[in-house]
Amino acid sequence: MARYQPVHGRKSPPRPLPRRNLFFAVGGASIVALSTLVLLNLSSSPTSTQVAGAAVTTKITTTTVVVSNPFAAPISAYLATRNNTVSVAFQDLQTGQITLLGSQAPQFTASMSKLDIAETLVHQQPPGAPIVPEHLKTTLASMLEWSDNDAAVRLWKAVGNGPAISAFNEAIGMESTEVPHWEAFGRVKTTPHDQLILLNQLLPNSVNSLLSNAQRRYLLTLLDHVVSDQRWGVSGGMPPGATADLKNGWVPLDGMGVPDWQVNSAGWVHGGGVNFLLAVMTTGNANKEYGVATIDGVAKIVEQVLAHQASPSA
Question: DSSP character for 68?
């Protein structure tokens, strides 16, 4: 049986996506050339979820048509050259198009789950209260900016352990995320698509977010100040003038003596003519560097396609 190692980090200083058209292209062993458009109409079929004492009601109806997807083929072709297992979720916020590639089976988050802890924490604060309790501000900053594991354990306990995080995830529609009961935050399992849902909670124009505008700005500022040696992955293809608000995770998994690293990255890249969400999860990496290079490669393809679309000759 594989033995889980402690996650990385430093000790120191329903299902609602935005109310826009959502395009899905799912690829695994094969590449699909077309995708499906799902229109969310928040006007019928109400459902209600209780989280942290607040009732959340969302009304959804769906309609399906077929559209082309320019991202699926080049990303899938690139992933076929990599010697690891990769799942990708990409959302072009300018068009609403979502591309899902790979099995989308849940994988270990490692420290990527720290964003989930942070969103749960700020959402639990009552109206009129500070965004973050004063005695936890430094802890939250250390967890997100430095990926401090001790800070993550403290905040995991502060929010109410796994059940509290699961309740928040259920309220926002993260149906494929598995959260352990106690403070093994690195053992959370999730999918890239669920990470898009989590990231959508932070977008300034999100009409479905459970977080206030001030809470979103606060967390985005912390993600924008992640230390430089952790600013890789979804930021790999950024054009000049762009910003990446991201959270990464990496951890060695000891399985049958075979090198196996879990390496993940998720974030919002905006400015410089681009505006997208990207989450990539990789496992079966020979080392951390191989996983980082894989995610950087996906991000660069995303930027190349977007640049081609923006070109006058496209």
Answer: E
